Amino acid sequence: MRIDAILSRFGYCSRREAALWVKRGRVTVPGRTLKSASDKAEPAEVLIDGEPVEFVNGLYVALHKPLGCTCSHKEAGELVYDLLPPQWLNRSNGVSTVGRLDKETSGLLLLTDDGAFVHALTSPKKHVPKVYEFETSAPIPESAVALFASGELLLEGETTPCLPAELQNTAPCHGLLTLHEGRYHQVRRMLAAVGAPVISLTRTAIGPLKLADLHLAPGEWAEIDPTIFS
Ligand code: URA
């Protein structure tokens, strides 16, 4: 691949600016400083300011989403993308969240530039379980466990019932809910349907990946191995 194409593909600079980066000796391959932006190299062997090109085989990142920021590229207010290095957002494949969390939900959020990965994790057909920990302002009725597991709960305004979900009540107003799909405000709507409005919500796991194992403070991110989901 041409050097100017590599630099712009992975978000470092525009193709036009690449000529300057090369001229300043910022772009090397082992044993050689490149001379022209039209030189060719394998992205995996290119060094920029002595550092390898980031995420040459795709960007896969877990973020501990804090409360108060939105999973959107263009809404007003703080966005999850503001928490990431700006260079990632300039990658030609575009970085997006894998599904969304509400502004007032915190927890595990994946980001990637791989559309197939997004599909594999969000399609209800793939049944990747997502675990949510919640607190409610009223006690959760015992009957909610069987109702959520039945696959018969029809949310207001919808025509297909929710897929079976596992509810674990850990205290009268606290619990864990495992979903296998991702509908709009689903956890809040399911609990509201049984008279237990959610007052705090965190996603703690997606498939085998657990937020607690990542040791990330709110706002921090870490690279993940996407093959753990295959
Ligand atoms: N369910 C919700 O209600 N909100 C989220 O952010 C995720 C699941």
Question: Which helices and strands occur, and which strands form pairs?
Answer:
Blueprint: H1 3-9, H2 15-23, E1 27-29, E2 32-33, E3 47-48, E4 51-52, E5 60-65, H3 86-89, E6 96-97, E7 105-112, H4 115-122, E8 130-136, H5 143-150, E9 166-171, E10 174-179, H6 186-193, E11 198-206, E12 209-210, H7 211-214, E13 221-223
Parallel strand pairs: 7-11
Antiparallel strand pairs: 1-2, 1-3, 3-4, 5-7, 5-13, 6-7, 8-10, 8-11, 9-10, 11-12
Helix pairs in contact: 1-2
The protein binds uracil (URA).
Residues 101-102, 105, 132, 185-188, 201 line the site of uracil.
What does this structure look like?
With 230 residues, the chain is an alpha+beta fold. The chain folds into 3 domains: 3-52, Structural Genomics Hypothetical 15.5 Kd Protein In mrcA-pckA Intergenic Region, Chain A (Roll); 60-124 and 209-229, 2-Layer Sandwich (Alpha-Beta Plaits); 130-206, Alpha-L RNA-binding motif (Alpha-Beta Plaits). It is 21% helix and 25% strand. The protein contains 7 helices and 13 strands. It has helices at 3-9, 15-23, 86-89, 115-122, 143-150, 186-193, 211-214, and strands at residues 27-29, 32-33, 47-48, 51-52, 60-65, 96-97, 105-112, 130-136, 166-171, 174-179, 198-206, 209-210, 221-223. The strands form 2 sheets. Strands 5, 6, 7, 8, 9, 10, 11, 12 and 13 form a 9-stranded mixed beta sheet that branches. The protein is elongated. The model has no long low-confidence stretch (mean pLDDT 96). It binds uracil (URA).
